[in-house]
């Protein structure tokens, strides 16, 4: 059951790996491909910005700071999660990792299984964040519509001396007559009466 869940989580994932070509990394890429990932492995880091990916894995090295910093900025701007691979025994990397702000950090010499678990966890967290962003956006839009309706009712009440139910009834009747939404009618009321 865990294998099926793992396969489902990785199937079709576009993964971009920036790491020196080693036998271990080539084997890791092969394993990810067998699990259903679409892996692109680049090294040295290309001069042009990479194509879209669902997750980026970037090897962090103090000597590569100038070339990896733009990658981190690029992926952050397009909201792609980044897993940094760093030498956990190099204390001088700590300030660089703080500046780069990766979504997760793993040991550079981590075994493939732990990296796959990190990838799945990071992808799930990114998916949850996207769901929360979408929910927040819907709530903000609903709040904006409610505010617009309340403001239009207030203008109608003040202008024509209506009570709240009368103002709402007026807007509802107007919306039905013009076959438009209540929100559109509220905007029209505000535009026409606030001039």
From TrEMBL:
- Gene3D superfamilies assigned: 3.40.50.2300, Winged helix-like DNA-binding domain superfamily/Winged helix DNA-binding domain (1.10.10.10)
What the entry lists under Pfam families is as follows: AmiR_N (PF21332), ANTAR (PF03861)
Q: The ANTAR domain covers which part of the protein?
A: 129-190
Q: Where is the signal peptide?
A: none
Q: Please provide, alphabetically and separated by semicolons, the GO molecular function terms listed in this UniProt record.
A: RNA binding
Q: Which domain of life is it from?
A: Bacteria
List the protein's name.
Answer: Antitermination regulator
The organism's lineage? Bacteria, Pseudomonadati, Pseudomonadota, Gammaproteobacteria, Enterobacterales
